[in-house]
Amino acid sequence: MEKQEETAQENEELFPTYKRWELTFQKAEDTTITDTNGNRYQDFMAGIGVVNLGHGHPAVVQAVEKQLHEGWHASNFFHYSQQEEAAHLLTSHSCGDLVFFANSGAEANEAAIKLARKHTSRKKIISFVQSFHGRTFGSMAATGQTAVQEGFGPMPEGFVRLPFNDVNELEKAIDEDTAAVIMEIVQGEGGVRPADEKFVKAVQEQVEKNGALLICDEIQTGIGRTGTFFAHEQRGIEPDIITSAKGLGNGFPVGAMIGKQFLKESFGPGSHGTTFGGNPLAMAAVRATLQTLTEEKWIEAAAEKGERFLNELNRVLRPLPVVEDVRGVGMMAGVELTEASAPAIKALREKGMLVIGAGPNVIRMLPPFTMKEETLVKGVHDIKETLQSIQS
Ligand SMILES: Cc1ncc(COP(=O)(O)O)c(C=O)c1O
């Protein structure tokens, strides 16, 4: 890697909501990002779990380009065939029957929380400690990380956050005022923490017993990331509502809430809406992404590559004293260290490998499914070298 010639400065005209790296984006292609100094990086984080098919997959680019010339926006008063086709692809790949398209993950969760309350006429929304559901008021209140809520109070009423993977606490808290339980099958931002199979089953049982709804937040885990279309399929449950975003448009901003047929009447005309959600450009990206994932068998590839990647991470990194745990599902992996992961993440970036943190001690990887096996293996060895050099 060449030494960086220029250092990106903090911009004076942007709210500093992100602690930006000293890198300025130039271009991205498949699994590589190039900065304005000509340095190339292997993107092991896929733009935070977004470009599952790699940056600029030709099928998605062509579909968006075609739509660009045919019209971007007319409003949701029109029937959009593009939206109906995208909805059909989502319902045919899930246990859901109806789709509401939004522009982001947080918006999809916001829709899910509103729908659950409206349908049940109940207040309580149960979520779990260390979960992440977004930064709008409803999704922020559901998020199980106090740092996300700090300074923005008061939170909306009725949100209860329980310890993750703890069936007893759930049994105590769920009651006849519970509208929904919202959960990630693998907590992403919270440290790549899979939910126990027993716990997931117990959540579904308790929800059914108490007449509440189950919302699976599949914003990070969905669209093949964990080796099946949605992660909950591997736990043998059927949520009432599924939320999706990130990989859904392979980088085009779009979110979706998928719900069961019996919820239809609760989201009638005037109940919820969005100006941009489901616009033809986003829908072109969704259709091309979902069709390509299926036709080119990328989800199967994610399952197989992901298993080999996790095995290699385990084999090479577990023996290191600084490594506390290696965990993951499919192409979603976390290496938990006995110390803060930020110095290793920075050192890896300087080596040309982009990874991201998840909680204070975890190195998180969400590579595009198109990443070559040899690149994945090299990444594992780069992590080993980096951890060893930081330790010495
Ligand atoms: C599980 C989960 N839910 C919700 C969100 C929020 O999505 P967005 O940033 O698109 O609003 C994220 C984003 O990281 C996420 O990982």
Q: How is this structure best described in words?
A:
With 392 residues, the chain is of the alpha/beta class. It has helices at residues 46-49, 58-70, 81-92, 105-120, 137-142, 146-149, 167-173, 197-209, 280-295, 298-317, 342-350, 373-391, and strands at 25-29, 32-35, 40-43, 98-102, 124-128, 159-162, 178-183, 186-187, 193-194, 213-217, 241-244, 255-259, 323-329, 332-337, 353-354, 356-357, 362-365. It has 2 domains: 25-43 and 297-391, Alpha-Beta Complex (Aspartate Aminotransferase, domain 1); 58-295, Type I PLP-dependent aspartate aminotransferase-like (Major domain) (Aspartate Aminotransferase, domain 2, 3-Layer(aba) Sandwich). The longest helix is centred in the C-terminal third of the chain and has 20 residues, at 298-317. The protein has a 7-stranded mixed β-sheet, with helices on both faces. The protein is 35% helix and 18% strand. It starts with 24 loop residues before the first strand and ends with a helix. It is globular, with a radius of gyration of 21 Å. It contains 12 helices and 17 strands. The relative contact order is 0.16. Pyridoxal-5'-phosphate binds at residues 104-106, 109, 132-134, 184, 188-189, 217, 219-220, 245.
